[in-house]
Amino acid sequence: MPSQHILIFGNSGSGKSTLASALAASRGFAHLDLDTLAWLPTSPPQRAPLADANTQLQDFIKDNTASSGWVIEGCYTDLLALVSADADHIVFMNLPVEACIANAKTRPWESHKYPSKAAQDANLEMLIGWIAQYDERDDEFSYAAHKEFYTRFHGRKTLLTKNVDLESIEL
C-alpha cells in the first residue's frame, strides 16, 4: 500500500516543494510547507515559537489524517521531529549543493512566501549563500541534522540524490 503520511526534507533548493506539490496533486493529499508556520510575519524574520508551530502541525495532521493523506515538507528538523511519529514514510532530498543552487536560480515564484517574483529574486543572493553553507552548519537546517533525522527514523525511508519525476520513485 502506498504511503499516506509523508515527510520530505533537505537543503533549500533541493526540490522538496516541487516533489511535495506533485505528490499532493497526484494523490489528492493535503500539503503543508513548513515555511508557512515556521516564521513570524516580522522584519527581520524571526522563528515562531516551537509550541505555536506544534499546535498548527497537530491541527494539520488531525484535519487531514482521515482524508486520503498528507505530505509535509521543509528543512526544519525540529518541526519534523514533532510529527515524525505520525509519518509512515520520509524522503531525504540529499542533492549536491551545486544542484540545490541551480534549482534555486530557476525556481518559480513562491507566492505563499513572497509578495512578488521581484521580491523573491531580491532574496536570491542570500538564499544561495545559505544553501552553500549546508554541509558546514550545525543547526536544525543542516546536513548533519537531516542525516541524523533520516538515520533515526524507523519507518519507510527514501534517499534521493537527484531530482526525479514522481513516476520514477516508489512512494
Report on the architecture of this protein.
There is one protein chain. Helices cover 43% and strands 17% of the residues. The protein has 171 residues and is of the alpha/beta class. The strands form two sheets. Strands 2-5-1-6-7 form a five-stranded parallel beta sheet, with helices on both faces. Strands 3-4 form a two-stranded antiparallel ribbon. A hairpin with a 5-residue loop joins strand 3 and strand 4. Helix 3 (50-64) packs across helix 4 (77-83). The radius of gyration is 15 Å and the shape is globular. The mean pLDDT is 93.
The H/E string reads EHEHEEHEHEHHHHE
User: How many H/I helical runs?
Assistant: 8
**In terms of structural class, how would the helical and strand content be classed?**
alpha/beta
Mean pLDDT figure: 93
Query: How do the strands line up in the largest sheet?
Result: 2-5-1-6-7
The percentage of residues in β strands lies in 15-25%
Write the layout of secondary structure elements.
Layout: E1 5-10, H1 16-27, E2 30-33, H2 35-38, E3 39-40, E4 46-47, H3 50-64, E5 70-74, H4 77-83, E6 89-93, H5 97-106, H6 117-122, H7 124-132, H8 143-152, E7 156-160
Parallel strand pairs: 1-5, 1-6, 2-5, 6-7
Antiparallel strand pairs: 3-4
Short description:
With 171 residues, this protein is an alpha/beta fold. The chain has helices at residues 16-27, 35-38, 50-64, 77-83, 97-106, 117-122, 124-132, 143-152, and strands at residues 5-10, 30-33, 39-40, 46-47, 70-74, 89-93, 156-160.
